[in-house]
Amino acid sequence: MEQEFDLDLFAAPTASARRPNAPLAVRMRPATLDEVVGQDHLLGPGAPLRRLVEGAAPASILLYGPPGTGKTTLATLVSSAIGRRFVALSALSAGVKEVRAVIDDAKRRLSHSGESTVLFIDEVHRFSRTQQDALLGAVEDRIVLLVAATTENPFFSVVSPLLSRSLVLQLQPLTDTDLRDLIRRAIADERGLAGAVTLDPDAEDHLVRLASGDARRALTALEAAADTAVATRDGSIDLATVEATVDKAAVRYDRSGDQHYDVISAFIKSIRGSDVDAALHYLARMIEAGEDARFIARRLVVHASEDIGMADPTALLTATAAAQAVQLIGMPEARLALAQATVHLATAPKSNAVINAIDSAMADVRAGGAGLVPAHLRDGHYQGAKKLGNATGYRYPHDVPDGVLTQQYPPEELVGRDYYEPTARGAERQLADRVPKLRRVIRGD
Description:
It contains 21 helices and eight strands. Strand 3, helix 6 and strand 4 (117-122) form a beta-alpha-beta unit. Helix content is 49%, strand content 8%.
C-alpha cells in the first residue's frame, strides 16, 4: 500500500538500517551513489543515472535487472538527490484505486504548493495492464515522476505507452569483484559486522559463487555464516562454516520472460556448437528452475532435424524417445532421457542440409513454382484416368537392376532444381557421393 518517506531518510541510512537487529543487507544499503557497487554503465561519469542525479532534466525511469542488483536502492537515492516528495507503492497489494489516490494527491500538492512527487513502484511488472494504464496521464503530464523497478524484461511485462514515456535502464548482475568489495565492506563497516569476524579466502570465494551476482544473497549468506562463526567458534568464517549454513546457489531463470528465451537459445546454440558441457549446464539450469520438460523435449526434437539431420539420422530417434520418456515417466526421472538426448545431439556430426532443403523448396512454392504434376506421375486408379493421359508412360523403378531409372519427377518448371545438398559430415558423407549419382541417372545426364 501507500507509504510516504521523508527525503532526509534517503540521504543517510534509513531508520530500519540503523537498527542493530536489522538484516545485514538492510544495514549495508548504500546511503550515497558513491557507495553503490557495480552498474558503472549507469553511474559512471556522464552515464544516465549519474546525469539525472547531478541535475539533468528529470525523467521517468524503469530500472530493470535481476534481484539484488540495487534497483530499490538506486530508486531511493535518485529520489533523494532530485529533492522531491517520495511515495512508494507495493505492486503486490496496490490497485487502481491506490494509484489514482497518489496521483490525485500529487496534483493537489503540485497546484497548491508546487511540490513535486516521485512515485516509486517496485515489481511494476506485477501491475495489470489497467493499473499501468492508470499511470499514463500522470507520467505524460509529469504530475508524478515515475521510478519503477522490475526483475522482468519490461518489453515483455510493461505496456508500450508507459515504456515510450520512460527511460529504460538495465542493471547487470554484480561481478565477482563487486561482490568481494561488498562482502569486505560489510565485514569492516560499523553498520555491518564491525570487524567482529574474519573470512577465509576460500570461504569468500564460495560466498561469491553462491551469490550469483546478487548482493542481497551475498550479504544474507555472510550474515548467516557470521552468526554461526560467532556462536560456535572465535569468529573465523571458514569454508565449512559457509557450506553448513548455505547449501545452494540461486538459479537465475524466469519461465515467462527473457531469461526463458535466453537460456533455451544458449542451450540450442551450445548443442549446435558441439559443446556438450555447456549444453548440459543449460539443461541443468532449466531443470532446476522448473522449466516444462515437454518444452525442452520439443526443442531437442526440432534440433535433431534442423542441425543434425542426415549427418546422424539416429539423433531424431533419440530425441523423440526422450520426448516419449517425458510423457511416460515424468520428472525427475525423465531428466536422464533429456540428458542422454542432449549428449547425443551435442556430440553428433552437424548438418543443416535438411532445413535448407525444405526451406528452399517452400520458397519456390511460395514464389509460384508449383507447376502441373507430370502426366505419367498422376493417379491412374480411377475410371477414366487413362483417357486423360494419367499414369501413361510411367516407368516402375523396380523393373531395372539398380532400382533407379531416367524419368521426370518434378513439374516442368523445376526440372534440374537442386534442393538437398548433403554435407561431408557423419553419415551424410555417403549421401554426398550418392545423391549426385542418383540425379545423373534420373535426369539422364
